[in-house]
Amino acid sequence: MPALKPTEFSATVRWIGRVPVEGEAILSAAIDTLDLGFDGPVGERHSGRTRPSCSRVTSQHARGIEIANVRQLSIVSAEELAEIASEMDLDRIDPTWLGATLVIEGIPEFTLVPPSSRLQGPDGVTLIVDMENRPCHLPAREIEALHPGKGKAFKTAAKNMRGVTAWVERPGRLTLGDSLRLHVPDQPVWSHLGAARA
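^ that's the sequence the OP posted. Answer follows.
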């Protein structure tokens, strides 16, 4: 029996972005198609098979240690972006402010899909969800620069709605309007989860 189950949920790719290799800013730029290799998005700052460890994994690794790169893409939900904007009293959240790779529409509570879920595109391109991408100060800084007084509200407003990070299991190409089918791990929720978080 397969360890991954196709679901009835599919998402439509509504926006594609690319963070330039050059520079330090988080801002991504809108593009129409995205070529994905095993290293991630081709010609993008977050691509690579490995990356230096960061503050998200300091309980496991000293900062700067080379580790596998499971943060090749940042995927956010159009529905959740709308909710964040409403919470922050903004007309919209521009995905460029978040350094997003993909904005998708159609999967409820997308940020909370199980880790190791797959999103599979028309040509077989497959992305593995690593985990929730927790809100951080970088998008808040970009928002504050454009909307003074609003940036500090981002982390609270985006809690459990910031999207996920993902990496490439099977290379391919994504284009605006493509459909991504959600596949989820076929396993029960670990009953000791609450104790493990203590």
